[in-house]
Amino acid sequence: MIPYGRQEIKQQDIDAVVDVLKSDFLTQGPQVPAFEASLMGATGAKFAFAVNSATSALHIACLALGVGKGDVLWTSPVTFVASANCGLYCGASVDFIDIDPATYNLCPIALEVKLKLAKLNGSLPKVVVAVHLCGQPCDMKAIHALSVEYGFKVIEDASHAIGGRYLDKPIGACDYSDVTVFSFHPVKIVTTAEGGAALTNDKALADKMTLYRSHGITRDEVLMENLPHGGWYYEQIDLGFNYRMTELQAALGVSQIARLGEFVAARHQLAERYYEKLADLPITLPYQLPNTYSGLHLFVIRLKLDEISKTHREVFDELRENGIGVNVHYIPVHLQPYYQHMGFKKGDFPNAESYYTNVISLPMFHAMTYEQQDEVIHVLTKVLATK
Ligand SMILES: *Cc1c(COP(=O)(O)O)cnc(C)c1O
């Protein structure tokens, strides 16, 4: 099976991890700060915090932004559940903004309409989580302008987008957001096995995220309430978690990040081949927003079902049966039973639901060979041509 995504581990990655195993520190050593420095270097953000998942990064970002009971978090319904769940972890409620049918990202026009209504009802969101689906950046300028006008905070869920660019800046620069989050799960662009990071340019948010990552404990005398009792002294000044990344993971991350440009460039070459060789099939190929460079975590096509004599499910099953490990990203979050029990229902976000009826993620990973890709193209062409 050719998977839809997978990691690339080279000897240098293995060596980096083995070196850590032989060193003094398996956790809380020099590799995590080195990885954070490489993330700041790659993005231009002033602060970066490596954690054990993007889910944890989203959680500490929400906490640092003060999300709590009585607050509302908005995000796109077409995302992984974690982009919404982080609001629930903080005791806030969650709502969604429908997607733009061209970019599949949350639609800034729908956002503005919903904000106008929310202002009248006194139910403005505390935070909007903008998800760069497939690596395609959201319209951050528009979202940022609305955040200034309506007074909400912005988190970029850039789990799909490391290595991409928005206008002239790397994703993660946080020019139009308060915090940007990355995921380093093995299907994503760069991996640390499990892992994530939260980046910001705001010192106050940075100080909070560093506390929430590790039990709310500080060793910084400036932050303490009491005078230190001695060299052993630390203080818990807030309630935090153990969301730390290990040294093994961070060393893998440092080694992988060195190839970030190469990884994303290889994805773009594969995408170009898909655009060229799939142009005549009854599908919609991904649209790219001008002046952006996608991280290209996913390559999503939409089936033109009225031109195909098969259902979405039949096409999906036949691709899988023929060794093509396609997937669907994503089941709209508001259709998940947990969210339905909160009152969301079918019909709430029509663009997201329509997207879900015909979308398929084709294999896209930097180590995919052209031979493998040609096999994907061959099988897809066959499946779509035959009755
Ligand atoms: C993968 C993903 C996450 C969660 O990442 P983890 O590192 O597995 O916690 C969050 N948001 C989006 C959009 C993702 O794709």
Automatic annotation (TrEMBL):
Single GO molecular function: transaminase activity
Protein name per UniProt: UDP-4-keto-6-deoxy-N-acetylglucosamine 4-aminotransferase
InterPro entries per record: DegT/StrS_aminotransferase, PseC, PyrdxlP-dep_Trfase, PyrdxlP-dep_Trfase_major, PyrdxlP-dep_Trfase_small
Any single biological process term in GO: polysaccharide biosynthetic process
N6-(pyridoxal phosphate)lysine: modified positions: K188
The keyword Transferase is assigned to this record: yes
Name of a matching Pfam family: DegT_DnrJ_EryC1
Annotated organism of origin: Marinomonas mediterranea (strain ATCC 700492 / JCM 21426 / NBRC 103028 / MMB-1)
Alphabetized UniProt keyword annotations: Aminotransferase, Pyridoxal phosphate, Transferase
Active site: K188 (proton acceptor)
Record family assignment: Belongs to the DegT/DnrJ/EryC1 family.
